[in-house]
Write a structure and sequence with these properties.
Largest sheet: 5 strands, parallel
Distance between the termini: 23 Å
Helix content: 25-40%
Number of strands: 7
Low-confidence stretches: none
Number of helices: 5
Radius of gyration: 14 Å
Order of helices and strands: HEHEEEEHEHEH
Mean pLDDT: 97
Shape: globular
CATH superfamily: NAD(P)-binding Rossmann-like Domain
Length: 142
């Protein structure tokens, strides 16, 4: 898939189909974008599970934090990646080991790795990169 541009329908279908989101790189700091986006997604009715090894066992936005995707005790529809581009490939590898696998890997603004995206897509996982669901939801009125 070409990740230079996305059809609005593709983005909207993802946003309307996912319910449980694992947010990697979640921060307890209210000034951090991951914290604000997590709060926004929770306010929109999504079940958001924070993932951050340094915060494991603590709470962010009232949700228990897990160290790794493999530690999340429920099925995840989407992984929202708040990590630098060089970590996207390892997030994809973690996602591919999950059972069941997530339907979507969403890499935040500025996060892009086309080879990692191709690996996920080859396994049947949809990928969005360099976008933010907290921007796309109001833009598309999802």
């Amino acid at each position: 898939m070409n990740h230079d541009a996305y059809d609005d329908r593709y983005i909207l279908d993802i946003l309307n189909s996912v319910k449980t989101i694992a947010l990697t790189g979640a921060s307890p700091n209210p000034a951090r974008p991951s914290n604000g986006v997590m709060g926004y997604l929770l306010s929109r009715g999504y079940n958001v599970i924070p993932v951050n090894p340094g915060q494991a066992g603590k709470q962010i936005q009232g949700q228990t934090v897990y160290a790794h995707l493999a530690d999340v005790p429920m099925a995840v529809d989407m992984i929202d990646v708040f990590r630098a581009s060089e970590y996207l490939d390892s997030v994809v590898d973690e996602a591919l080991r999950m059972n069941p696998r997530p339907k979507v890997i969403w890499a935040q603004l500025g996060v892009r790795d086309d080879a990692a995206a191709a690996k996920a897509e080859a396994a049947g996982i949809k990928v969005v990169m360099d976008r933010c669901p907290a921007i796309e939801i109001p833009r598309l009125a999802a």
